[in-house]
Amino acid sequence: MKRVLVAGLQHESNSFNPIVTGEKDFQVIRGAEVFNRFRPNDPVSGVIKPLMEQGYEVVPTVFASAVPNGEVDHDFYMNLKAEIIRVAKEEQAKKPIDAITLALHGSMRVKGLGEAEGYLLEELRQIFPDIPLFCSLDMHTTMTERMHNNCDGFVGYKCAPHTDRYETGEHAARMTIAALENGFQAHSAWVKVPILIAGEQSSTTVEPMNGLIEECRRTETQPGIMAASYLMGFPWADNEDSSCAVYVVADSQELADKEAIRLAELMWSKKDEFCFQTETYHEQEAIDVAFKAVEAGDPCPIYLSDSGDNPTAGSSSDCTGFLRLLMEDSRTDKLRSPVLYGGIYDPQATLACKGKVGQEVTLTFGAKFDSATTQPITATGTVKAYIENWARSSVKSDLALFSSCGVDIVLAEAHVGYTTLEVFSDLGRDPREADIVVCKLGYLTEFHSAIAKRSIMALSKGSTNEDLKTLHYTKVPRPIFPLDDNFPYDAKANLIPKHQ
């Protein structure tokens, strides 16, 4: 029975966020425990299940994931990598490993080091120089030379929001199986496309991304093509590798190069078409539009995205600017129920609500981490609900619902995402019954979209500013669109050769 080593690292690291993401922020699964943790939209499950179904012995190592946040703690990452390498060496000593298949993110950054994925791949390749090594990636991967040089082939998600994570893991597994059973010799081509694109401008439900992804899918139907991916980069990480890219895996270098160059030229031709597809305004105007809709009797709930402080894109989730505008707005008194707001990451303020449900308290909250962008709020209100060890996120967190100045505010003891309805309903507020719901998101997740009668994105402030020109980039390679414009682009000249 052939043996395939598997591992997973999932984290999107925002260099503008001052938080250092550490051990307490990660969920870490070790060894055979992963076989009891299969999930429907999970790239690790997508890698492992097809391999097992085809009769391979899956050799599990370490699987670590966290909500996007600031760069990862150096020592924590080094220990994770060392553990994966140690298990790999031990298993190789027992019986040879025939292939490696990984589920990585592609934009995980380590404080004081840089890229996370490249160093792991490099060390694995040093131990296993001659076996197939394939990897699934997030669509928002920032490809690097170290990654390119030490992996046979990558495939990225094709859906944003990322509803195809399982299928992408499965795709990486298929490439592994093709190499082991059919003698597939992977040749990969990477072409840089010097563009920075905010996540909310790259939804695959609308143009131009919908058409670009369809072209990737058509490319993959060609004989000899194993994978074709647009890797959109991560715009909220200021580093020397920042760029969009095309990555193609084929059975010949000539074919891989040709298709990657063609897809890169297509993306470049569409660069001016990337725009906000969601109804978008600056902060105060977004609030005004929402209140006017409620006053006019429009269907509710109306959703507002506090997009500049989106924890699922790596922001600190403690910025208070947009919340302050809502709390100071007297129109909240005319709503059927308080504005529902998710939320503020503040461990001390959250824990201060414990045991005080139904009581009036005065809290100071926010700006615990990002004190440069925002200021704390001090307010008196009522603790409406409290949950200990809420477990619907990648890490457990106490949650409180604090009501003040016409707003019901979710306070979180850990860095959680506001991606599901349960973050509100578990605290006793059904967002379906609210007039206005605010989430720290960009585009709405499928769960919120299903109930939102109108979705408005506010260009608020934080570590995930949607207007990229407002960010202080110092390391990104220049020229790069949209920071620069009217410069020539030659896709062939941006084809990066592989050095092994």
Which structural class matches the secondary elements?
A: alpha/beta
Percent strand: 15-25%
In round numbers, the mean pLDDT is 96
Radius of gyration: 23 Å
Unreliable segments of 5+ consecutive residues:
none
Spatial arrangement of strands, main beta sheet: 12-20-13-19-14-18-17-16-15
Largest beta-sheet characterization: 9 strands, mixed
Number of DSSP helical runs = 12
- N- and C-termini, Cα separation: 29 Å
Instruction: Tell me how many strands there are.
Output: 21
How much helicity do the residues have?
25-40%
Label the overall shape: globular
List keywords for this structure.
single chain, 500 residues, alpha/beta, nine-stranded mixed sheet, six-stranded mixed sheet, 25% strand
SSE layout and pairings?
Layout: E1 3-10, E2 27-30, H1 43-53, E3 57-65, H2 74-94, E4 99-104, E5 109-110, E6 114-115, H3 117-127, E7 133-137, H4 145-149, E8 153-156, H5 165-182, E9 187-193, H6 209-220, E10 225-231, E11 244-250, H7 253-269, E12 279-282, H8 283-295, E13 302-306, H9 321-327, E14 339-345, H10 347-351, E15 360-365, E16 377-390, E17 397-404, E18 407-412, H11 422-425, E19 436-439, H12 446-449, E20 454-459, E21 495-496
Parallel strand pairs: 1-3, 1-4, 4-7, 7-8, 12-20, 13-19, 13-20, 14-18, 14-19
Antiparallel strand pairs: 2-3, 5-6, 9-11, 9-21, 10-11, 15-16, 16-17, 17-18
Helix pairs in contact: 1-5, 2-3, 6-7
